[in-house]
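ARCHIVE CARD
Drawer: 12
Card no.: 0347
Subject: one protein chain, sequence and derived structure
Cross-reference: see card 0346
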Amino acid sequence: MGLQPHVFLPGLLLLLLGQGTTQPNSSPGENTLEKQLWSEFPALKNFPLLCNPKKSGSNMPSESVHSLRPSDIKFVAAIGNVDTFPDSGTAKVEKHQWNGKRPQQACMGMVTVLSEVIRHFNPSVLRPVCTPGKSVVSHSSTEDLWIQTKELVRSMKENQQLDFQNDWKLINVFFSNENQCHLCLPTQQQRHMTASMNKLTRTLDYLLQKVPKAFVNLVDLSEAVGVSHWHQGTPLSPAAEPCHCSGDTSKLSKVVSQWFYQESWERLLASSKYNQQESFAVVFQPFFYETLSRQQPLQDPTTLALNLWNNMMEPAGEKDETISAKHRKLVKCPSQENPYLFTYRNSNYLPRLTKPHGKPEVRDGIEIRCPDKDPSDSIPTSVHRLKPADIKVIAALGDSITAANGAGSKPGDVLDVLTQYRGLSWSVGGDHNLSSVVTLANLLREFNPSLKGFSVGTGKENSPGAFFNQAVAGERAGGLPDQARTLVNLMKTDTRINFQEDWKIITVFIGGNDLCDFCNDPVHYSPQNFTDNIQKALDVLHAEVPRAFVNMVEVVEIVKLRELYLEKKVSCPRLLLRKLCPCVVKFDDNSTELASLIEINRKYQERTHHMVESGRYDTREDFTVVVQPFFENVNLPKTSEGLPDSTFFAPDCFHFSKKSHAHAASALWNNMLEPTGQKTRENNFERKINITCPNQDWPFLSTYKNSVKGHGSQLLCGNKAPSTSVPTSVHALRPADIRVVAALGDSLTAGNGIGSKPDDLPDVTTQYRGLSYSSGGDGSLETVTTLPNILRKFNRNLTGYAVGRGDANDSNAFLNQAVPGAKAEALTSQVQSLVQRMRDDHRINFHEDWKVITVLIGGGDLCDYCTDSNLYSSANFYEHLRNALDILHREVPRALVNLVDFMSPSVMRQVFLGNPDKCPLPQASILCNCILTPRENSQELARLEAITRAYQSSMRELVESGRYDTREDFSVVLQPFFHNTRLPILEDGQLDMSFFAPDCIHPSQKFHSQLSRALWVNMLEPLGRKTDTLDLTADIPLSCPTQNEPFLRTFRNSNYTYPTKPAIENWGSDFLCMEWNPSNSVPTSVHELRPADIKVVAALGDALTVAVGARPSNSSDILMSWRGLSWSIGGDGILETHTTLPNILKKFNPHILGFSTGTEEETAGLNVAMEGARARDMPTQARDLVDRMKNSPKIDLEKDWKLITLFIGSNDLCHYCENPKAHSAGEYVQHVQQALDIFYEELPRAFINVVEVMELTGLHQGHGGKCGMPLAAQSNCTCFKRSQDNFLEMQELKKVNWNFQSGVSKFSNWNQYLQREDFTVVVQPFFRNTLVPLNERGGADLTFFSEDCLHFSERGQAELAIALWNNMLEPVGHKTTSNNFTYSRTKLKCPSPESPYLHTLRNSRSLRDQAEAVPDALFWALPVATGGGGLVVGISAVMAWKAFKGRRQTENPPISLNTMSF
């Protein structure tokens, strides 16, 4: 085991206090000096040594200096003058008294530490010696060194404990170049180095001749002592004049000069006579600070000694250890493979001019063969219609990559990296042509040979050949605004270009140097400062440069440089790399510092996107900035051996070679042609250069506006003004009043996979928050449709939206606090984070700003429901949602909360089941097992559907409880657009997968755009009339606030009253049929008609078919007609939410025609029913219907099969007693027959449903106080009113009612309608015997009826549609004649393989006459009456039964519906 620090330090203490191994000839003064060391250099206490001496020791001393181990060393000594100062943290400079003993004291401190380190390997090491000079002032340093050398040799020979001939000695020769010429250009270094070597020769020669078995460290303290302002002068030359470096003084120049200085010493010593023997070697040991500032803190001898030891542990030529003012290095240990001190021989040292690793480049240039190289027919005025050949001027801003330092340097010629080969620069160089030099400029010259502005040859930014390449080597983002100003001035004054008319392309690339120094000043190089500086530069260009396309190239993923630095098999000047980019290479792989750098690198990239994609630079038609992200993810190119390929780099292994410049140029070119959102973000330099040609159909350079077609929207609203004063009520909130947007939820809101390419499955983990439907703020509404981008059209100062990519903790996520994978339980945590962010952010006035917060949660809970049904129960879902909303309600002022219904699990199932080859089922099954794995029609799937409905009911119940409507400035509104999703189907019948991310689960940007539009439309729709269906393929126009309804809708400004108990979410039905294909060919016989063969639907009738009162209205006395919900002809929504006959048929044929939508007559389609209609009106309606069909360009009257439903009679019964003859059963049947005759004569290919009239006699005024209009309805139904108190009249009315039913029941058998093969009439008798629905308390269930209790509600309409459909699939003679109105989503019957047709008399195989016997069951008593021209529906079966038995007495009080039962 290695010796621990607590064992090592006491020995060092004893040694320093003079109690260690003694040595003759020590003077009292020396002992006094030693005793001072502990107090002078307290840092000696703090360094660890964890080496295991057994691993690096040997039983026999080495015979060769080239296999010398630390355990072989017996004696440590030093000569030369060491003048340093303790670490700035240990003493104040002005308190130190400098005297002749100070250098001696520092020297003694260094050798003491070295000796104690060696003692760890060899406990018998002798006490060290630091031979003092005889005079500090009277002799030159060279003379003094010579005196010290002789004195050291003498003292070693006289040392009784040292075997001078056989013991190995470690001798340190300290020297310095006070004039700092080692930091000058190499041409200036040579003279000073030669002089220095000449001064050292006598000393080294003497040691070589006189001292056997010696390892000599030639220790250069030039930098360590050169930074001292108190240095007293111990230079190697007698005239210590400062070295005035001429020429380039940049950081790069200094770093290269420093490296050359070390390399020159290494080469000089490696080939010298001092390294030709087995018992003697001299090795150069340099000292360098991490940074180049001349104001470095001075280091204590302990730090210098440990640095020296660590240098000795590194092979010659690889000594890149730097002195850190902040970080104390660990003591390095000899390795098991190399347990010896390194010499030039055992290091296999070779001069730097060696053959580099890498594949030789066969060809530098390329050819481009694009079919269209022509410019636009006329000079474009819009940057969004700019072809490559339209570009006349090229320019660039940036750092040494764009200046092309070292791009043309020969392998190994590190010094030449100082040369700026601007003519080879990737983005602007113009040397030669594309056949030999690949650059953006040379690519553009293939399209326009007259291009101006490119740089040629070599030189700095101010050289004539630089032209508009104004990049500055070593530049950081802070210098970019000055570059932009210089470029603008050059362009304005250059007569070779037309500044106003010429189209210009300007490429900006910066950030590498900022990242390289980030760890040294995190505040200065923060992402905010980085993008602020870029913004300043772009603002200059935007303000002053006309007709410009600006490439903003993302900063490179710089951490990949570590691979090159760490791979020892690749010949790289590591000291140079460490000095150029310390923050990338100096930290360990798993360090927090490196992780921080990677994060900052990512934020540099993300913030650049945020800034540019904010739309800041798209305010002019002739100017744009586009982020080109090809550097975002760069894989270091490798050789065939798997090593980093250094041929892609300049000799310094930092800058690009010509090869990399070519690859970068091609990647930039390709990025410029790729649409935004689809740009290549990863560049593989190993691949062959591939140049993309402009698309012939769209040959323009891609901008944000011209490349995101299909995802943008137009908002054509005239009034976008805010309220005249900031509203205090959420119910008076206009869109322009919104100041803050926020969002909570799961991966859908986080934006996972929105921008992922179709095959890039791993990228689904990327959170494209800037594109999220409810909170994304990337681009503008013209390019990216999101709720914030819509709201920004009303208020450009909107804040809170997310931009770019990242997780919820990133600053660019802002108030999008959604977390991928989140379940309802996590919503509370998200709310707390959101509230805290809103409180803390200076951009938000928490108490005054109006906020819109969108919440969508629940999908993740359903995905895991089957794993723990208790944990994910609807009760728990309700509780978690309530807790989260409670916090918002309690803590957030001025907020409108959108609670969005989640996407139905059935959508995900349909996507996966329909695309087994495209969708990654194994991965998705892991993520959402409970939704994707259950089999069709399984119990598990049924449970999933049930819990889904329960979740949705929980949401509605919570909102409609009124819990969040107790404050004037807060409300929660349920937005139901996502409740039903109509999937996009391609022409080939396949799902359109472009609406989904590669995982087939998350929505793509295309899908999110529709979500945004639907959410916005929902926000402007009043409660009670909100769209609950999302048709992904529909053209959803963005609604506008109106002058009369300018507010975002809430329950109050919608005049909406919440139901006392949350209703079932919708009255849709589940479609479980498997046989839904049409006939193989269009049938010619109506008796072989399948549901899918129907092309046209139509209907005749009265208010029931018009669907009066199907939904509540805003008026207290006028009921609306909801034709789109009509049982026999309505087509609103989809079957899953609205059960109607057309919606059922749409499952068989999505392209069916004729159905009604909405509430207006203009959208009635082929619904010719009229409120108040009677049987006498049927011929007129029939004629009207025929005319509509004939005049419709969409209907092929001869070939299309038509399904027509006729239902009439309620109003005839209601007014029978007024004129019995006119309203007799005979008259009734005759009018219906006349209508049928018209169809028979005029319409080919028709299937006519005649629905029997219901019975009205049970209608009664006793509604238990629940209804508002029963008396009005009675007063308009004469017969109903008169029959209330007259038993005989009631019986007469019942008889007529039955005669109506009986009369039409014979139409199915009428011979007249059996003569044509393509025509039939079928009577559907489900209304004949119908039981009144009861509620859970046994009373009549009024939810089946409208708010006046007289008309059918949407629920009642759905029940009628189910009954009609089921009748149509039942054989004639065996049809159901009753309907009990019990709720179930699975009551729809299906065609079977054995009986796939709609049933007619013939295919029912029933020609017998239908019996006229009175049904055994009681007539149902769901009464219908007409008042004021409308169909009136009410209930009272008990009343009918009592009247029939004759037991109702006139004096009996009305019976409340609340007490009715059967």
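Annotation on reverse: The first helix runs from residue 5 to 16. Residues 528 and 1380 are 69 Å apart (CA to CA).
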